[in-house]
DNA sequence: AATATATGAATGAACG
DNA sequence: CGTTCATTCATATATT
């Protein structure tokens, strides 16, 4: 499974955390994931048991499922992709390096990274270079947007009386996900 | 919509909601769940194919797992991502702006447009940004297709199909890689 | 219901 | 580096 790194990735500096989901909602979420995990385990075991006797079943193999589940979406099979797509492993390593900070990698550093990542799939130095450029640019843009919306919220909050509560459509991002 | 249940199940009365996870973190979470969903779907299909030949496998059965309401999300998966849909009024205004103001709006302009359009429904700056990007790109593609179909009789010697893309020179290679 | 299309969003690559 | 372009992915909607 793609468990995601240390807590540092999830907790920003100086952020204030308030409980958004109730314990019941968290439990629903946990159960939904657990159901998938259970089914996966059973099916994998079943598959192993079967292929122990019949090493090939209708040409289907689990194979790449273990390898790159993120890329297992249906459409991406036959056509050779024309642009580089990082494998899950490459992405994880890149993210880790990015989170370490240290700014933009030097040319020498990029060479080293490329060599390292090429053990996990096709990659070129320009891919690495572009990736860092894009990652940085988009993070910055996102932060700017967040800053603006935060400022607006504060301004609005100042103009309203504290007792008054206003429906904020901005929170719709959260209510849609994982609702069964 | 994000599927079943009124918002009352998720939003308590009088509760104040603050964003605890960034959109990026939410996306990571969604993808992690989606991994399970994808694996499960494929494994279930595999299981069906297998049990078509062996109707009893070592006493293991999925049983009611298929019937689980959380699993039977044929119409709306729990991992489905919500996506903005412009209202007719928003769409009309966007089209008008696109037709008059040539080119992609600046960030400042986008902010203004967003504020204006939010009077006609939920919308964010990235929605506006994406809309203009897509509108422009698709118009260009349509024009190119039209152009190709107009001139195809003249340039039939060219073996290149319209779908094929020409790899463009990479600036990183030009500026950095070939040095030394 | 299954398939096809339209389109919002994500992202690799390129430009100035 | 910030911005823009081009392609791809995923989902909502339309069609059969």
Automatic annotation (TrEMBL), chains A, B:
CC annotations in GO: nucleus
Protein's UniProt keywords contain Zinc: no
The organism's taxonomic lineage, starting at the top: Eukaryota, Viridiplantae, Streptophyta, Embryophyta, Tracheophyta
UniProt-annotated location(s): Nucleus
Region feature (Disordered): 149-171
GO MF annotations, alphabetized: DNA binding; DNA-binding transcription factor activity
Residue spans of biased composition, Acidic residues class: 153-162
Principal subcellular localization: nucleus
Chain residues forming the annotated DNA-binding region: 79-143
UniProt source species: Zingiber officinale
Domain Homeobox: 77-142
UniProt-recorded name of the protein: Homeobox domain-containing protein
Keyword Nucleus tagged: yes
Complete-protein stretch covered: 32 to 211 of 304
Superkingdom to which the source organism belongs: Eukaryota
Keywords, comma-separated and alphabetical: DNA-binding, Homeobox, Nucleus
